[in-house]
Amino acid sequence: MKISTSRLKDKDMRSYKLMEWTDDRVKRFWDYESNYPENYFAFQAGASVIHELKRYFKNAKSALDFGAGPGFLIPHLIAAGLEVTALEFSDDSVKKLKDKFKGKPGFKDVAQPEELLSKKAKFDLIMVTEVIEHLNDYYLDKSLLLIKDLLSPSGVVIFTTPNNEDLSKLMIYNPVTDEIFHRWQHVRSWNVNSLRIKLEEYNFHVVDVIETQFLIHFNPRVSIYTKVKTKVKWLIKRILLGKIARPNLVAIASLKG
């Protein structure tokens, strides 16, 4: 697990053990969080993500929502005119998505990796939305190799992730186990350089890496309270810190020809 330790040192918390995110713990964590859809990034900003990034996939016909979760990005991809497949990794997640989107126009299927690989499926667009900050080295390697196998020769993959996040600021102490963990199960932080270098390491052609801020003000599914709170927090940071870094990082990549 890679984290920024500046705050931990300041608070003399180096003696606390970082909790290991086992597969079972990750599943139980997100099973619980699924009760609060308003906290999901794609619920809040999915419409803005597709609106701001559609120029990168204007010729795409098929899309894969990689690590789709509850499927909050899927309606926005369908609204953009794409035929959408969802990829999830557990039988339970696959069943939930099938039940939720069965028969919906523009929704093709939901599948696990082995099924897509056996069919030699290829996609013009792969959206990897707020996924890579959750992956340890083992799963990051598996995911990037899988994306390469599923991306069409002329396709694009788009990664979104928090921009240069200081993970220490959202660490929580568990008094039962005497361990600390990140509130949103993030295990690594990305910036423009580290994300570009990692994708190039896997032989992707990096089209662009940009810092941005996805907006939620035009999403009718987000409460007025959440919209106002987000705006106020941003204004306070701007007043106290002056120019602040944009919170969202996006990388657009393709396969090397």
How would you describe the overall organization of this protein?
This protein has helices spanning 6-10, 23-33, 41-53, 74-79, 91-101, 113-118, 137-150, 192-201, 224-241; strands spanning 17-18, 62-66, 83-87, 107-111, 123-129, 151-162, 171-174, 179-182, 204-212, 248-255. The protein is an alpha/beta fold. The strands form 2 sheets. Strands 4-3-2-5-6-10-9 form a 7-stranded mixed β-sheet, with helices on both faces. α5 links the parallel β3 and β4 (107-111). The chain is globular. Residues 1-10 have low confidence and may be disordered.
Brief rundown of the structure:
Helices cover 37% and strands 24% of the residues. It has helices at 6-10, 23-33, 41-53, 74-79, 91-101, 113-118, 137-150, 192-201, 224-241; strands at residues 17-18, 62-66, 83-87, 107-111, 123-129, 151-162, 171-174, 179-182, 204-212, 248-255.
What layout of secondary structure does this protein have?
Layout: H1 6-10, E1 17-18, H2 23-33, H3 41-53, E2 62-66, H4 74-79, E3 83-87, H5 91-101, E4 107-111, H6 113-118, E5 123-129, H7 137-150, E6 151-162, E7 171-174, E8 179-182, H8 192-201, E9 204-212, H9 224-241, E10 248-255
Parallel strand pairs: 1-8, 2-3, 2-5, 3-4, 5-6
Antiparallel strand pairs: 6-10, 7-8, 9-10
